[in-house]
C-alpha cells in the first residue's frame, strides 16, 4: 500500500521557485520573437520596426507574454488590404477586405516570427525549468 499527502506550504515553496523561472523564460521568448519580427518586417521609414514591443505579466496561475506593435498601420502590413490583401498568402482568414479597392499584399512579420522561433521557445522553457 502506498500513501501520499499534499501540503499547501510545499506548494508555496514550489511556486516561489517556478514562477520566476517561468517569467524569465517568457521574457526571453518574447524578446526572441521581437528580434525576429524586427529582422523580417518590411521597412519604409522604420517606425513600424521600432514599434514592435514586448510585455510579460504574471496573472494568478499563468504567465502571459505579448509581442505587439502599437503602430496604426501594423495590422495592414501584417494582413494586407483590399483585393490584393485578401488574395495574398498572409491574409487574415475571415477579415473584411474591401472588394472594391486594389489594396496591398500582406507582408506578415509577427506570425512568421512566432513560427520561426517556436522550437527555440520550447527549448528556452525546458532549459529554464530544468535548473
Question: How is this structure best summarized?
Answer:
With about 130 residues, this protein is α+β, with helices and mostly antiparallel strands. The protein has helices at about 10-40, 45-50, 75-80, 80-85, 110-130; strands at about 50-60, 60-70. Helix content is about 55%, strand content about 10%.
For the biggest sheet, the summary is: 2 strands, antiparallel
Q: Compute the separation of the termini in Å.
A: 33 Å
Low-confidence runs of at least 5 consecutive residues: none
Q: What is the C-alpha radius of gyration, as a whole number of Å? A: 20 Å
Count of DSSP strands: 2
Overall pLDDT metric: 92
Overall shape: it is elongated
SSE ordering: HHEEHHH
Strand order of the largest sheet: 1-2
Strand composition percent: 5-15%
Provide the helix percentage. 40-55%
**Total number of helices:** 5
Structural class: alpha+beta
Write up what this structure looks like.
With 131 residues, the chain is of the alpha+beta class. It contains 5 helices and 2 strands; from the N terminus they run ααββααα. Strands 1-2 form a two-stranded antiparallel ribbon. The chain starts with 7 loop residues before the first helix and ends with a helix. The mean pLDDT is 92.
Keywords:
131 residues, alpha+beta, two-stranded antiparallel sheet, 53% helix, elongated
Task: Walk me through the topology.
Elements: H1 8-40, H2 47-50, E1 52-59, E2 62-69, H3 74-79, H4 82-87, H5 110-130
Antiparallel strand pairs: 1-2
Helix pairs in contact: 1-5
Amino acid at each position: 500500500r502506498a500513501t501520499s499527502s499534499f501540503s499547501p506550504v510545499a506548494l508555496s515553496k514550489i511556486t516561489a521557485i517556478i514562477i520566476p523561472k517561468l517569467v524569465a523564460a517568457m521574457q526571453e521568448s518574447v524578446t526572441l520573437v521581437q528580434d525576429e519580427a524586427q529582422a523580417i518586417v518590411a521597412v519604409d521609414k522604420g517606425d513600424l520596426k521600432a514599434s514592435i514591443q514586448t510585455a510579460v505579466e504574471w496573472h494568478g496561475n499563468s504567465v502571459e507574454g505579448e509581442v505587439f506593435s502599437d503602430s496604426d498601420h501594423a495590422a495592414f502590413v501584417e494582413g494586407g488590404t483590399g483585393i490584393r490583401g485578401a488574395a495574398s498568402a498572409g491574409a487574415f482568414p475571415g477579415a473584411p477586405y474591401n472588394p472594391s479597392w486594389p489594396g496591398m499584399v500582406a507582408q506578415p512579420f509577427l506570425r512568421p516570427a512566432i513560427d520561426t522561433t517556436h522550437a527555440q521557445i520550447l527549448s528556452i522553457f525546458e532549459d529554464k525549468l530544468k535548473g
